[in-house]
Amino acid sequence: MSTLALGAARTRYEVVAYFRSLDTVFFTFLFPLVMLGIFTAAFSASGDIVAKPGEPGISVGAYYLPGMLAAGVLLSGVQNLAVDIAREKSDGTLKRLGGTPLSPISYFAGKIGQVFVTAVIQAVLLLAVARLLFGIALPTDGSKWLTFAWIFVLGIVTSAVLGIALSALPRSGRSASAVVVPIVLILQFISGVYLNFSQLPGWMQTIAGLFPLKWIAQGMRSVFLPDDFVALEPNDSWQLGGIAVALVVWLVVGLVISRITFRWIHKDR
């Protein structure tokens, strides 16, 4: 089989295995949906959120939707792959795969393909629930959806590559969740997913700006929040160009780290 065919076959295998793992499905697939429901139910009584006094506001659910979409990208790519690959290293799966015709390229293609497929399903489900269950209005401007598409795709690929790179950090499969989950959780809190980014201390905003989640969340806000909410962003701008640059830089960093740290083929090969 060709490298492409093996990658496609591996993607199918990874997707099936993903949905058979109940803890993975809950903590990476359903978690953003659960959090959107919790925030909407808990804070809706406080009224709509406004960007400027006197301007029309939006519901709590509508305000948190972009953050939950961004969190879904991070969880699907970084957390899912970092923990999964670390476990496969620990239990000998990678060593066994090293003796098969599956190349590292096909293996990576399968992992990234699985992340892309599950993230798309997750995003569609999240948007459907937001619209049908919570009554959140979605964009009607085609340009907004084009912006969503490139941020989503670039964010997914970047997150997947960074998940592969981060899988080298845990010393064993058992410690993978303990190492990876706190990193992902902290990034969500400082990147404007659970907290209003404009209300965070300046030093915290600066630190968040060094990591990709802040840029993915900002990009999602540019799509799903009204235009006047740009006043709450740094420099009163959505900074779409900066988002593209930041994600591409992190994609390159993830590729370099993955190339340096990933091992599965026997030393004598």
Q: How would you characterize the overall build of this protein?
A:
This protein has helices at residues 3-20, 22-43, 60-90, 93-97, 104-132, 142-166, 176-190, 202-208, 212-224, 240-261. It is mainly alpha-helical and 269 residues long. α3 (60-90) runs antiparallel to α5 (104-132), α3 (60-90) runs parallel beside α6 and α6 (142-166) packs parallel to α10. The longest helix is centred in the first third of the chain and has 31 residues, at 60-90. The radius of gyration is 19 Å and the shape is elongated. Residues 23-268 form the ABC transmembrane type-2 domain. It is found in: Membrane.
Q: Report on the biggest sheet.
A: none
The helix/strand order is HHHHHHHHHH
- Percent of residues in helices comes to 55-70%
Inertia-based shape: elongated
Membrane topology: Multi-pass membrane protein
Transmembrane segments: 21-43, 63-86, 115-136, 148-169, 176-195, 238-262
Main location: membrane
Keywords: Antibiotic resistance, Membrane, Transmembrane, Transmembrane helix
Features:
ABC transporter permease, mainly alpha, antibiotic resistance, transmembrane helix, 269 residues, 10 helices
What topology emerges from the helices and strands here?
Elements (H helix, E strand, L loop, with lengths): L2 H18 L1 H22 L16 H31 L2 H5 L6 H29 L9 H25 L9 H15 L11 H7 L3 H13 L15 H22 L8
Helix pairs in contact: 1-5, 2-3, 2-5, 3-5, 3-6, 3-7, 3-9, 5-6, 6-9, 6-10, 9-10
